[in-house]
Amino acid sequence: MRVEHQVRAFEQVLNNYDGVLPLHRFLFNYFKQNKQMGSSDRRWASRYLYSYFRLGKALSKVDKLKRLAVADFLCHDTTSLVIAHYLPDLEQSVNLLLDDKIALIKKVYQSFKLEEVFTFEAELSEGIDKEEFLRSFFIQPDLFIRVQETHIQSIINQLKANHIDFKEVSPTTLALPNGTKLEQVISDARLYQIQDFSSQKTGAYFEPNKYDYWWDCCAASGGKSILLHSLEPKIELLVSDVRENSLNNLQERFQLAGIKKYHLKVIDLLQKNDQILHHYEFDGVLLDAPCSGAGTWGRTPEMLNFFEKYKIENYVKLQKAIGASVIKYLKLGKPLIYMTCSVFKAENEDVVDYLIKNFDLTVERMELIKGYNNKADSMFVARLVKNKLTLQDQA
Ligand SMILES: C[S@@+](CC[C@H](N)C(=O)[O-])C[C@H]1O[C@@H](n2cnc3c(N)ncnc32)[C@H](O)[C@@H]1O
């Protein structure tokens, strides 16, 4: 195949992409409508598009195809026609370590700045190693599965039998190469849950008790509820979301996970919901808030190019309003678990600060769970407890 052919396909797809749909959904639709692209064309166009977006705003004044070659060189340890054509002197170095490759690129392009890959550095939550975080954009995150300890050996045996690479990253978590087709390898879909490693770690903040009644108020397809249930199967659950179709997906996943004791409602937390919820009092609320998703941009690098800073403030307004509307349904002394998959302080620590200043809540603990050293997403989690009445309050 000639480089011109690959480049034409890349440019065609790039010119048609406006950032509205996530890139993987756009590519799926695009390839369906452009059946003349064979499997090799599709594979190369996907690789180039993802590489290209991983460069973020770095080298923005350089010619598009030269940028593509730099990006593809940094993202992969195998060469490509684009690397061979536009960076011939570096082709032999494609399998060096990332730091060495960055140093080589800096020699060719003195204007290359890692800080320009992700241009929102000033917005980051505390404790993030900026250099490590920026470098992580050139590395594709892994696919993680959560498995009960009793089933892990059987899963490992099936992976080995199918020659699938995997890593045991905790007694209940396996990391696999992204794109692994698990449904073709593991015979029983009930034995595992696909869930990012950092997302799994938020479970350490839930601490449910037997016979508790919890509310997952932004449940989507139920990832956090299923995690909660795995920690304490003897709980009752209310699951709700503003999007009805995401709850359909949840019902299927609950069935596979064997979760039967739950109630499901479509609730918009920006509306008054007293009519629906007036008699509810929960032992815990999971608030996995709508957010920028900046902790997951390693999986959606197109966001490095299409996200705009003003959008953070829109999410913050939503997060504060949703937080404010759920607290009254929490029992005294019980936790609100506030979570985001954002790395922005405004959506994390600042929202927690707002909630404790305006409502009777105390922060028990909070953490930015850093995924960049584990080829995982980054998440924020805080356990906020509704204060009990003091004797003075009661008098
Ligand atoms: C980060 S996702 C939740 C992910 C889910 N908890 C999981 O573990 O898979 C945030 C969810 O908040 C929901 N949401 C956004 N605005 C809302 C609103 N006004 N009321 C209720 N839910 C809302 C979205 O539909 C989305 O499903």
UniProtKB/TrEMBL annotation:
The active site is at residue 341. Residues 120-395 form the SAM-dependent MTase RsmB/NOP-type domain. Coiled coil: none annotated. It comes from the Bacteria. The keyword Lipid biosynthesis does not apply. Keywords: Methyltransferase, RNA-binding, S-adenosyl-L-methionine, Transferase. GO terms for molecular function: RNA binding; RNA methyltransferase activity. One of its GO terms (biological process) is RNA methylation. S-adenosyl-L-methionine binds at residues 241, 268, 288. Belongs to the class I-like SAM-binding methyltransferase superfamily. RsmB/NOP family. This is RsmB/NOP family class I SAM-dependent RNA methyltransferase. It comes from Pedobacter frigiditerrae. The lineage of its organism: Bacteria, Pseudomonadati, Bacteroidota, Sphingobacteriia, Sphingobacteriales.
